[in-house]
Design brief:
The protein is 62% helix and 0% strand. It is mainly α.
Amino acid sequence: MQVTGHAATGAAGCAALGLIPGLITSNFVLAIIILGGAGMALLADIDHPKATVAQSFGWPTRTLAQLIETLTGWIYLATRTGRDQVRTGGHRTLTHTILFASNMFFLALWLGDNKLANLIILVLALYWGIRGFLPKTTKRLRKLLPKAIRWLLTSKEFVFALAAMIPLLMWVDRIPMLSSWSLALMVGWGTLIHSLGDCLTDSGAPLFFPLPIHGQVWYRIKAPVRFSTGSKHGELLERRIKLLCIFFITLTFFLRWFSK
């Protein structure tokens, strides 16, 4: 699944949190969690140096991604059984599991009580969320937008400043911060949604590592109906998935408004 598809499904998945009674009381907070969830739905690809999240801060994040890919590759080789496929590199291995998403949830829950850590996590999530939606948007609007606006939308510095605005208002107590539970749910659920999205592709995802399935600890879960990322059929299906996500997010806010 491509970056905008992951961002859209992450946003829709976190929108579903707004339908749980009493969990998120403010539509404004829900909107923040939706955009942040779109960003966290890109985190699992931190094991690939060319991924959006790995390219987000230049060489430091690219280097981190390369280290993670190497480390997860070693873990794969050290734990694979005779029935697991032989592969090099660690992309779509450890970071694409329920185990990884759960660890991200508990890490965010632990850090969420610290104001600075809470806001740093939120800045990153919002930054990745905005970047996740921009590639297709700027491409389609290239002929309509003024050159200065196009430059701003492709500027990492501008996008980061845009993402930091809400956390900055939280820092000065102009708007309430996300609770540690809301932050953790956004992080953990958004991260897991990425892997669930990859289950719709031909590659699948080893969701249940290290539980053995058919003699494999890295058994790749694949949906009955799936597609190849980047193919014409895949792009068509992703476009439909994104439309469904937009519809679901809109429906969520409507149902919340109607239930009041």
